[in-house]
# Entry
Amino acid sequence: MRKIEHIGIAVRNLEEAIPTYEKMLNTSCYKIEEVESEGVKTAFFKIGESKIELLEASKSDSPIAKYIEKRGAGMHHIAYDVEDIHSEIERLEKEGFQLIQSSPKNGADNKLIAFLHPKSTAGTLVELCQERTD
Ligand code: ZN
# Structure
């Protein structure tokens, strides 16, 4: 893993959260993107090398909706940038980490992504992400 790519934060209302983050970070949201398959609408902010991803549920049965229902809004996951997501998945599986899905899928912001289950990471949902080249 090369660096923290972004931190994902679950919010109840993206339209309210975006101006709050714009004021707090003193920068504009550079991308709003819906990932239909995940039932999520995302908004991205860049601060230096780092990014913040706000996540709002776009469907009532999406993982973000369930997360907020159970634990409230707030920190949701940490995403690490990887050079080759396929070999990272293989390495982590060999090390005994539990992948939520064993093959990467398309995520927001032009990424290939896969998640590690918090059970195997000492409590934090971890996202692996690799920049898509297609
Ligand atoms: Zn993410």
Q: What stands out?
A: Strands lie at 3-10, 31-35, 40-47, 50-57, 74-81, 105-107, 111-116, 126-131.
